[in-house]
Amino acid sequence: MNTSTTSENLKQLVKEKYGQIADQSYTENATSCCGAGGSCSTIDYAIMAEDYTNLKGYVADADLGLGCGLPTEFALIKEGDTVIDLGSGAGNDAFVARSITGEKGKVIGIDFTEKMIDKARANAEKLGFNNVEFRYGDIERIPVTANVADVVVSNCVLNLVPNKRQAFAEMFRVIKPGGHFSVSDIVLQGELPSGLQKSAEMYAGCVAGAIPQKEYLQLAKDAGFENLTIQKERKITIPDEILAAYLKDGELKKYKDGALGIYSITVYGEKPGAARVKQLAEEKKAACCGPESNCC
Questions:
Q1: pLDDT in tens, 220-244
Q2: Which residue ranges form the domains of the chain, and what is each CATH number?
Q3: 3-state SS, residue 21
Q4: What does the alpha-carbon distance between residue 244 and residue 168 come to, in Å, rounded to a whole number?
């Protein structure tokens, strides 16, 4: 099976899972691993997600018990900003962002699960928010023109994207020069055991789709982002009964005794200003097309 076929299969799996989640209540999702259709039903909600209820702009109907952080809390959003929320779900982070941007700003939510888009649009209409828009689209091909967003936020979504390099490149494209992102996600420290890595259910549950933290940050840097900062870090504890479903006894002991860690992190990164972007492009061209290079 080639890489593109595998990627499409994974996307379809995630879409199906989150389509199921859109039909579930907050309580049903809160008792599953990232809301993954009950496949991790003994994982407590607090292990992955964090409490939104005290944040300004919180809308209970938009909170499906998903996510692994509070990116809007760290995103340095200002009044009048244009914010893009990648993997916007039922609109939870979008509505929190809107409470900060105010009526002068704009929030665009992107999701590729039709049922989530429908649910988010219904919530926005019920709230009377004319400056919050939800678009159907793939994060690897964000349906937004270049240099639109002052801020990009995302909550436990990029780890589900097969081509993370392309996702970061797209984020860089849609952010204005001088803009920034704040993203909460699941990353790894150490090598994920093969039993977890190969599990499609755990992939949809936000664990097996994760990559090493060092690699994650390097992808953001390769895309052109600067001043990368870990704004918050929290270790995720997976109960033994869940690990035992995916690991043999020897693997489980190695997992518990080893240096492997599953973390929720919130990462901040800046797109350089226009002059710096031009300079970097020229430097890249010079490095590629210099007299000793034949890559052009």
A1: 999 999 999 999 998 887 777 778 8
A2: 3-288 (3.40.50.150)
A3: helix
A4: 34
The letter for the amino acid at 169 is A
Residue 48 near residue 264, CB atoms below 8 Å: yes
Report H helices in the chain: 3-22, 26-30, 45-48, 71-74, 92-101, 114-127, 164-174, 194-197, 200-204, 213-223, 240-244, 249-257, 274-288
pTM of the model: 0.81
Instruction: Write out pLDDT tens, residues 84-107.
Output: 999 999 999 999 999 999 999 999
Query: Cα–Cα distance between 63 and 268 in angstroms, integer?
Result: 23
- Round to whole Å and give the CA distance between 63 and 60: 5
Amino acid letter at 257? D
Distance CA 84, CA 154 (A): 8
